[in-house]
Structures are given as C-alpha cells and as structure tokens.
Design goal:
Distance between the termini: 22 Å
Number of domains: 2
Order of helices and strands: EEEEEHEEEEEH
Strand order of the largest sheet: 4-3-2-1-5
Radius of gyration: 16 Å
Structural class: mainly beta
Low-confidence stretches: none
Helix content: 10-25%
Amino acid sequence: MKITELTIRNLVKYRGKVYSLTEVYQDKNEEYHVKLKNSEQSLSVSAKLIKPVEIDEFWLLKFGFIKTYDSKYRIRFERGQEFLKYDIDLHSVHSMTGLKIYGNNVNCRYVHQFQNIFCFLFGKEPI
C-alpha cells in the first residue's frame, strides 16, 4: 500500500487493530508518518508500519451490502441503490473476487480502496 493511495478517514490496520487515518505528514527526514485513531486510542506512527484492511464479509455487511448468493464456489453481495456488487470467489485459480460497478469489474481488494471509489462516485462515505 502506497501512502498516495490513502485519504483522510481511510481505515487501515496497525498492530492488528483497525484505525481511521486522521493526518499524513513528513518529518524532517522526509519520512511519511500518519496519525491514527479508533475508539480506544489516538497515535502517530511511521506510514511504513500500517497495512491495508482486506475486504471480507464483515466489511461488506458494514458498508451496507446484502448477501444475495452463496454457493461452494462464490458468494455475492449487492448494494442495490448504487448498482454495486462484490463477489468473493472461493475456489477459482483465476479469481473473480472483486467489486463490480454497473457490471464493470474494478480492482478493489481493500477497505481503503472501496472507501475512495465510493466517495469519488457518490460524494459521500460508504458508512
């Protein structure tokens, strides 16, 4: 994950916990650092230490998707009002996992990517 992919309020992982990004800045050595917060704490860490949050069923449901199909090969989630679908491919070597917007496949495996795409398309946060 590159620091340039992130925007304020993106969700990221640090030491196994999920945080909201509140600020990005550079120190005197031009190294990037981020300020993070969650319900437990606020902290500042090197940007190199944060990781992306993978999209899974928990996050899709939290973002307002509804599970519409479930088989041993694939699970589909839909968020109908925006014509969004997300498939989780359970077996294929050529994975079909990912976001579909109006039928077009979009590379989107992480929560921050979905947040950015959603905000760009609809002008608001997904939750």
